[in-house]
Every structure is written in C-alpha cells, then in structure tokens.
Write the structure tokens for this entry.
Amino acid sequence: MTGAVLEVRGLEVDFVQYERGLRRRVVRALTGMDLSAAPGEIVALVGASGAGKSLLAHAVLGLLPPNAVERGVVALDGQPLEPAARRRHAGHDLTLLPQAASFLDPVSSVGRQVRRSAELAGRPDPRAAAAAALERRGLGREVLRLYPHELSGGMARRVLLAMATLHEPRVLLADEPTTGLPADVVRTTLAEFRAMADGGCAVVLITHELRAAVAVADRVVIARDGRTLDTADPAAFTGDGAALAHPYTRALWQALPGNGFSVAEGV
C-alpha cells in the first residue's frame, strides 16, 4: 500500500518443538499473513480465536520466542526489518496494547507503572498525567494504590490502555482492547483510537468483535487459520452481507446476533 508506515507481506511463523529427547516437531502457526497500515487510518484485523491475530502483533514487534522461525517481510516506512531491529522500535514507533493483565508487573502498584509510562512518554508532570489517563477511563485515584491482582479483568484492560496511549506511537497495535469492557467504555475506547488515527497514528485494531470493528475501521482484514483471506470495505458490512465478496467474510457477518446467526456449511 502506498504511504503505509507498516507493511506485513507473506508472514509465516513456525515453532520448533522437541518431544521425548531429540524428536523434533514443527508447528506451523502462521501460513501467510498480509497487512498494511498508513498514518491516519484504523485497520481492523478480525478473526476467530486461533486465527493468528495476536501472533502477528508479537511478530511485528520482534517479540516471538526463541523457538520461532519467521519468514516473510515486516517493513517500517518501506524498509524491511529483522526482528532485532523491530524490537528497538518497540515502545517507541511501534507500541503494543496487550490483551492480558499478565503484562502488568505483579509487584508494582498501578500508580507506579502508569507514572513510569508517563515519564517514558516525556510528560512534564507524570503523576498528574497518570491520574488523568486513568480518570478518562472511569478509574478513580484509588486505583493508583492497587496492585494488578486487585484489579478486575476490565480494570486491567483500562490500565493497559492508559499506559499504551500515554505515548504518541506511529503505529499502535491494539490486541483485543474492548473485550469485557462496559458498552460506554467500549465507545470511548474506539473514539480514542479514531482520534489517534486522525492525529496521524496508524492503528491496527486486533479483535474478534466484528461489529465494533466495522463501526470505527477504515479497512477490515479477515484472518483464518494463520492466513489473511480478505480485505473488505466497512461499508460492505450491511444487510445480509451480499456486498461482501469473500464467502468466509460474509459468513462471519451473517453469524452475528441480529444477522440471523446463520452458519454456512463448509465455511
């Protein structure tokens, strides 16, 4: 894509495992992922659990484990980068908003962790910035004193969102950022992603919530079984999905509540 800050082309990932001594087994996890994102747009990467969405995000940041074997191209500003080079961009040009609370430090308070993010982002008053970032997500100052194990799943996601968006990354990879959140917080979160994109950030929204993705995305990329199958215009997700060209994309849309829960055979 012309003007893309992030490009993923033909990404394949294998994991090498050993069983019973030296017996070697190769597990193919990604079989061909393609994705691009330009400044000013939200690209939604949609698929069921196990489609390879989160794995793609970790590959982009060079965060795959040592037993991973990667093929394909991951480029920033048109320049293909090896995993080590991508790791140097992680947390700066490339920021991951993870889905798991395990990304929080279990022995450090929420306040300390969010303040540290504010410091790294160059905020002049990290303490005030941390409190304001949490308040915008419906979390009061009392949360600053809590530890990760004292947070609910939804609260932990909001803390992670606050930390990730204190930076001004060129690319934000948001991994399942709205799962388990109240409807009003989902709307606020998606509006924040839209504002970040409008400010020049390239946002990759990784989700299995198709309807939420369609509401905010500029393009929707559909993944299945470690491969990207389709790129669709959000405007095509309407009615019975007749405007959607790919049968799997159409089947995902038709299977949603309100669209008949229809499941096509063999798709």
The first helix runs from residue 53 to 60.
